[in-house]
């Protein structure tokens, strides 16, 4: 059994190594996406203008009027002092004739003067420069930037979801292989352990797997790094693999499994199927109308937080209004904000979402992004996730190195064996 599991571990690891190396390195970087974006693009992120901020809804209307080819999709309702306003937009499925298609999905404005400071396509594949470098890495991390094929743009997301499944299985297999050999097979007379092994406890026999032999050969150090770091971080690796599966295969795998095990409170995004691009039309009700309803409904619920953002999803024909203070952009422990949903055709209320509330299944579902991003633990969690990204990359590199060295050794051994077999049959040349 052990030899079979070793073979499984080897090939699952090789199949996922490149992907885990890439996602590990990008994950270590994008834990600091906002900070890096502000560092690279200070002119777009910060404003020194003094005075009262204009209504963000009014500024969003100006953007829509300036660019008739787009539909406004996200409007921050308040802006922190010294920061700019980032309006989210998306190209219209049926833009006015004669207008060139746009190549941006964010517009940055000065909240005091209303001046446009810049615009960009968040997550653009090319060209990569400082304006979109962080978003390029962010999208690369979960989708590989694989293009749309046959009208489907989720190939990369599905691929990395499959890699997450392989990673999860391989983590359990690798853990089993670190156990002492005597614990991996039944005790029989044919496999009687040596006396010194029988006298040692299970923990004493397993402990060397957790340690590094720093003064050994390069091969042994790489082997110890692969095994020991995998053991010390095993629980975190399982959490990262499972949450990656949950985020990338939410509709396809995660939610069906969760529904079979728990009673969930479905969100409107879970019960509606996304519309094809050609059917993604502008809303029939305005942002102002929906916002007024949301503020009234939130007050009736006793929510103290102000409305912080209103967004429109053309794919689901939904508005959602988030309630939070400007400095709390990622919500409680990374789980988002209090949210109200409304239908875009008639402004009908469709439900609410409150972070970390609901049944056990609801909390598990909400916890996946905070766990994967580390934001569930705040700043220490983000540091931990950055370190884990490097660990994942290191495990991938050392795994491939060990396979390559063993493959090379097997080739040499095979050549020696073949030489020994051929030696007796050799005919020595005669000399004259």
Structure description:
By secondary structure, the protein is α+β, with helices and mostly antiparallel strands. The chain has two domains: 1-33 and 142-186 and 198-265 and 360-407; 34-141 and 266-359, no CATH class. The chain contains 15 helices and eight strands. It has an eight-stranded antiparallel beta sheet. β3 (106-109) and β4 (116-120) form a beta hairpin. α6 (155-177) runs antiparallel to α10 and α10 crosses α11. The mean pLDDT is 89.
Question: How is this fold's topology laid out?
Answer:
Blueprint: H1 2-30, H2 33-40, H3 42-45, H4 56-66, E1 70-76, E2 85-91, E3 106-109, E4 116-120, H5 133-143, H6 155-177, H7 195-199, H8 202-206, H9 218-232, H10 234-248, H11 250-261, H12 268-271, H13 287-301, E5 307-313, E6 318-323, E7 338-343, E8 349-353, H14 360-373, H15 378-422
Antiparallel strand pairs: 1-2, 1-5, 2-3, 3-4, 5-6, 6-7, 7-8
Short overview:
With 432 residues, the chain is an alpha+beta fold. It contains 15 helices and eight strands. The chain has two domains: 1-33 and 142-186 and 198-265 and 360-407; 34-141 and 266-359, no CATH class.
Structural descriptors:
8-stranded antiparallel sheet, 2 domains, 432 residues, 15 helices, alpha+beta, 8 strands
Topology order in helix (H) and strand (E) letters: HHHHEEEEHHHHHHHHHEEEEHH
Uncertain segments: none
| Main β-sheet description | 8 strands, antiparallel
The figure for the number of domains is 2
Percent helix = 40-55%
Number of helices: 15
Average pLDDT figure? 89
Strand order of the largest sheet: 4-3-2-1-5-6-7-8
Class by helix and strand content?
alpha+beta
Strand content: 5-15%
Compute the number of strand runs. Answer: 8
Q: How far do the termini sit from each other?
A: 59 Å
Radius of gyration: 28 Å
Assign an overall shape.
Answer: elongated
């Amino acid at each position: 059994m052990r030899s079979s599991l070793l073979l499984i571990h080897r090939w699952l690891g090789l199949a996922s190594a490149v992907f885990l190396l890439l996602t590990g390195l990008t994950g270590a970087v994008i834990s600091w996406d906002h900070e890096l974006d502000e560092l690279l693009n200070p002119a777009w992120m910060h404003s020194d203008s003094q005075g009262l901020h204009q209504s963000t809804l009014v500024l969003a209307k100006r953007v829509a009027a300036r660019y008739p080819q787009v539909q406004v999709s996200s409007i921050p309702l308040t802006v922190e002092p010294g920061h700019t306003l980032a309006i989210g937009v998306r190209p219209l499925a049926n833009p006015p004739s004669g207008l060139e298609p746009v190549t941006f999905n964010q517009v940055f404005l000065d909240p005091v003067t209303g001046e446009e400071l810049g615009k960009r396509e968040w997550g653009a594949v090319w060209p990569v420069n400082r304006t979109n470098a962080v978003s390029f890495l962010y999208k690369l991390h979960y989708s590989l930037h694989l293009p749309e094929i046959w009208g489907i743009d989720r190939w990369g997301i599905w691929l990395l979801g499959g890699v997450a499944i392989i990673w999860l299985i391989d983590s359990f297999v690798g853990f089993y292989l670190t156990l002492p050999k005597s614990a991996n097979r039944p005790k029989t007379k044919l496999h009687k352990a040596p006396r010194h092994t029988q006298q040692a406890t299970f923990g004493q026999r397993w402990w060397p797997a957790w340690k590094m032999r720093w003064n050994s050969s390069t091969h042994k150090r790489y082997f110890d790094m692969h095994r020991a770091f995998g053991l010390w971080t095993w629980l975190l690796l399982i959490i990262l693999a499972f949450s990656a599966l949950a985020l990338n295969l939410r509709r396809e795998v995660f939610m069906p499994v969760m529904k079979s095990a728990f009673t969930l409170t479905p969100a409107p995004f879970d019960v509606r199927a996304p519309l094809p691009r050609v059917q993604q039309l502008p809303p029939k009700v305005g942002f102002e109308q929906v916002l007024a309803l949301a503020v009234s409904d939130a007050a009736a619920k006793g929510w103290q937080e102000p409305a912080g953002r209103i967004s429109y999803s053309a794919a689901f024909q939904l508005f959602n209004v988030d309630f939070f203070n400007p400095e709390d952009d990622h919500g409680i422990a990374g789980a988002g904000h209090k949210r109200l949903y409304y239908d875009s055709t008639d402004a009908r209320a469709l439900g609410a979402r409150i972070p970390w509330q609901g049944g056990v299944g609801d909390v598990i579902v909400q916890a996946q992004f905070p766990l994967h991003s580390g934001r569930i633990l705040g700043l220490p969690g983000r540091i931990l996730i950055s370190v884990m990204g490097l660990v994942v990359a290191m495990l991938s590199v050392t795994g491939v190195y060990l396979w390559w060295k063993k493959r090379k050794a097997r080739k040499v051994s095979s050549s020696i064996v073949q030489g020994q077999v051929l030696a007796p049959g050799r005919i020595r040349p005669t000399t004259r």
